[in-house]
Amino acid sequence: MLVLGLETSCDETGVALYDSERGLLADALFSQIDLHRAYGGVVPELASRDHVKRMLPLIRQVLDEAGCVPTEIDAIAYTAGPGLVGALLVGASCAQALAFAWGIPALGVHHMEGHLLAPMLEENPPQFPFVALLVSGGHTQLVQVDGIGQYTLLGESLDDAAGEAFDKTAKMMGLNYPGGPEIARLAEKGVAGRFTFPRPMCDRPGLMFSFSGLKTSALNTWQHSVSAGDDSEQARCDISLAFQQAVVETLAIKCKRALKQAGMKRLVIAGGVSANKALRVSLEKMLGDMRGDVFYARPEFCTDNGAMIAYAGCQRLQAGQHESLAISVQARWPMEQLPPL
Ligand code: KG4
Ligand code: ZN
Asked: What is the pTM of this model?
């Protein structure tokens, strides 16, 4: 089955062609980062308008790259939520219009299920069941995954998502959007031990997260440094390192607890923050010590992309799921509401 996947939930237009027999045939991405940078974050209306501009040229590009014609496509998968409603509507209406014109089914895919399944596109994919750590700009969740659509939420953030905390911490130090990769880059030049930030909610049992206090600690430290006359690059690097270490260690502690609770030794990390090298190194060491395994996607499939939507959609479409021509998207959409395959 050949599936065209469209992703437009936020600030990236992603398009891909995935074939159930041949694997990923082509994928293309247009990132709107430069468009939103001046505002320090995503401006929803600008995002929607840009998706409109990019979508059809990207679809043509992907078809060309794969050497395919539209009549070969069996179905279209698009992100139906969660995300920015205007941006989601661009992908949904484009998908439904093309599906109607080409006489093929369309299916709305859950963005976080897309992230969760992205490691399946890699050479050594994880087997079910596993524990998944979903860490993106909008979500921080620990999920027990027994199969596609068999999700049990084990824990999540009470306030900021991990990616959001990276972005906000970066912004207050005057770094560019998105802040995650910027903090990771500066952390490499940071002096370890100069600052230490708390590991929130680790001293009590449970699998919930809270990152807003950590972000405030970083803000206070930065303001202190500035008022003491040090607003240098090195101060930013040292704060970035301390902040990243605190986030990574907090995530690792909770992953260990979740694996223990679920009685599992297989961990999948997905979403934009799973591209973070320090996080990968830390979890690989932890799972190595436990004689377990950690799985993640290549960096470009950790952040938003069309390939993960084409893949997730293909699994559900092959199982016979599709929908009517109604165009419906959801800004909020708990993943446990998805039907099992
Ligand atoms: O999954 P994603 O592309 O979009 C959402 O679904 O939200 O995740 C974007 C988030 C941003 O907050 C970004 O700062 C963060 O992922 N991110 C990173 C890294 N690369 C992206 N955070 C830490 N380290 C990175 N290398
Ligand atoms: Zn995402």
From this structure: 0.97
